[in-house]
Design a protein that fits this description.
With about 210 residues, the protein is mainly α. The protein has 9 helices and no strands. Helix 6 packs across helix 7. It is elongated, with a radius of gyration of 19 Å.
Length: about 210
């Protein structure tokens, strides 16, 4: 018989979020049912609704979990790397979430490189219907750009980046390149071609930004 969670609110919420990742990853947003998430946790569906009022709210929390994890990976890399390293295999794998799931067992979403098409369609639909979700997603997107902007600003102060370079535009450009290549990956372009393009284009961008 399904049970309720123990009375540890944050721990229970995190369990639901982590368990939900694999369902949203493997089945997409629309086909995922709250009841099956509850069954996999051994609790009643009502127990989940004590922490999340709807599947939409749970989905948003899963997105936050996913984005915060990838941002930590980004910050960790930037803290020990130079701008030239942004064209390396390691940085590509971080930006495109490749093989990171080896370090976090529950993040099976990363086994698929990034959310499947249904997942992205759900984001688009929910952003249009839910203003608060749009604000949250915009915030996380801008946070990633600002993290990179600060990184480039620090190197500009060291003289490694040309003084006339707009570091915000540089960061936005690299992020936009990532977005475009992810779309190409969704269309079926081979990962080897995506990787090659990323390395070549980032080298060209950085060549124009780095001091001689």
């Amino acid at each position: 018989m399904p049970k309720v969670f123990p009375d540890y609110r944050e721990e229970a919420k995190n369990r639901v979020i982590k368990e939900s990742v694999k369902f949203f990853s493997e089945k997409g947003y629309h086909k995922t049912k709250m009841a099956e998430i509850a069954d996999s946790l051994g609790v009643s569906k009502g127990a989940i609704y004590q922490y999340f009022t709807s599947k939409e709210e749970l989905f948003l929390e899963v997105l936050k979990y996913y984005i915060e994890y990838t941002q930590k990976e980004l910050i960790s890399f930037l803290n020990q790397s130079t701008p030239e390293d942004l064209s390396t295999e390691e940085f590509f794998d971080i930006m495109f979430n490749i093989e990171q799931s080896q370090s976090v067992e529950t993040l099976t979403i990363l086994d698929r490189l990034f959310p499947p098409l249904d997942f992205n369609l759900a984001i688009s639909e929910l952003v249009k219907s839910n203003p608060s979700m749009k604000e949250e997603m915009t915030k996380y997107y801008m946070d990633s750009i600002n993290i990179m902007t600060k990184y480039f600003e620090d190197y500009k102060k060291k003289g490694a980046i040309k003084k006339n370079i707009d570091t915000y535009s540089l960061s936005m450009g690299i992020t936009s390149l990532q977005d475009g290549l992810m779309a190409a990956m969704q269309m079926g372009i081979e990962i080897s071609e995506i990787r090659k393009t990323w390395k070549e284009i980032t080298k060209m961008i950085l060549k124009s930004a780095l001091s001689e």
